Amino acid sequence: MIKNGYSCEIELGFGNPRKIIPKIVKAVNADLLVMGAHGHKALMDFILGSSVDAVRHQLDIPVLVVTKKSTKK
After folding, report:
1. Which residue, 59, 56, 5, 53, is CA-closest to 29?
2. Which range among 1-5, 24-28, 29-33 shows the weakest confidence by mean pLDDT?
3. Residue 35: which of 55, 20, 16, 49 has the closest Cα?
4. What CATH number labels 2-67?
5. Which of the 8 DSSP states describes residue 69?
6. CA–centroid distance for 42 within its chain
7. Cα–Cα distance, 40 to 19 (Å, whole number)
8. This prediction's pTM
9. pLDDT score of 63
10. Sequence spans of domains, the chain
11. 17-26, pLDDT tens digit by residue?
12. pLDDT digits (tens, 9 = 90+) for 33-63
């Protein structure tokens, strides 16, 4: 898809996200990676692991991390 001079591609991969996402990004020669995150606190990231951290350390391109806005007050 191209709009306003920008092109966007969507790729679907299967398997361990920490391995498959960097592989796909490199294969398509991406300029930017946009990833969603759960917005866990530090302790939960430590327990569950953080795919975002693992992926961004394997890439040489900008990674935009998008989280869900909290509705808690």
Report:
1. 59
2. 1-5
3. 55
4. 3.40.50.620
5. P
6. 18
7. 21
8. 0.72
9. 92
10. 2-67
11. 999 999 999 9
12. 998 876 666 665 555 557 888 899 999 999 9
